Structure formats: structure tokens, C-alpha cells
Amino acid sequence: MTYEDYNAFCGMLPATSYVVQWGGSHVWKVGGKVFAIGGWHDDEPSFTFKVSEIAYEMLKEQPGLRPAPYLASRGMKWIQHFAKPGLSDASLRDYLRESHLIVSRGLPKKRRLELGLMTS
């Protein structure tokens, strides 16, 4: 996946915002909370996303994936796709979608209603 593809996909998810920060990383947020980070590597695109505890255990030692630097060292369940083979583009999109869902579910109910992320 290229950064262009990544940004286009994340931009299609509901109630997202985009900012470039942390040394030029492509940072996507929902309700002001980060759910995906693209960047930190010049040679190979890298993508960092929040995962469930089960997904974290499954992914953390797969080739091309690792616990996300900084975030995982603080006990957070974030994975970084940093090299090939890593994830297929379809699987990466699935994990980005799931990260968006995990983060949005952590927002206060009032904020989720304001953003149109729940119907009641």
C-alpha cells in the first residue's frame, strides 16, 4: 500500500480528520483520537494501527510486523507494518477499519453521537 492509497482509504472512514505531525507522519484521527499513523520510514511505507489483544498476540511476531515503537512499550496494543511481507493491502485495510472502530468505541457516547458514529 502506498501513502496515497492509505490516505484515501482512511479518509473514507466516518468522522475522520487528517494531520501531518511527528516528523512528517500521516496521522489519522477519529474524534480527535489517533487510530492510524503512516510514516516513520523513508525507504518503505510503514503503517501503525491499534488492534485487539488477540490480534496483537497474532501479529506481533509475523514477518514485516512488530509491536509499534513507543506505543507498545507503554503497554498499548498497537502494531506497525514496516516491511515486506507484512500484511496484504486487503488485510491492512481490514486492520485500519478495525482500529478506527476500536478508537471510536472508546470515545464518550455524547461525542460519538455528535460525530454520527452511533444512532442512539
> Any idea of the CATH topology?
Aspartate Aminotransferase, domain 1
The poorly predicted ranges are none
Sheet with the most strands: spatial strand order = 1-2-3-4-6-5
- CATH class value: Alpha Beta
CATH-level-2 architecture: Alpha-Beta Complex
| Fraction of residues in β-strands | 15-25%
Major beta sheet, specifics? Answer: 6 strands, antiparallel
The outline comes out as globular
What Rg, in angstroms, do the CA atoms define? 14 Å
* Mean pLDDT over the full residue set: 93
Label the structural class: alpha+beta
**Cα distance spanning the termini:** 35 Å
Share in helix:
25-40%
Task: Explain what the structure shows.
With 120 residues, the protein is of the alpha+beta class. The protein has a single domain (3-114), classed as Aspartate Aminotransferase, domain 1 (Alpha-Beta Complex), CATH 3.90.1150. The protein is 33% helix and 24% strand. It contains 4 helices and 6 strands. A 6-stranded antiparallel sheet has the order 1-2-3-4-6-5. Strand 3 and strand 4 form a beta hairpin.
SSE topology sketch:
Elements: H1 3-12, E1 16-21, E2 25-30, E3 33-38, E4 47-50, H2 53-59, E5 65-67, E6 78-81, H3 89-105, H4 109-114
Antiparallel strand pairs: 1-2, 2-3, 3-4, 4-6, 5-6
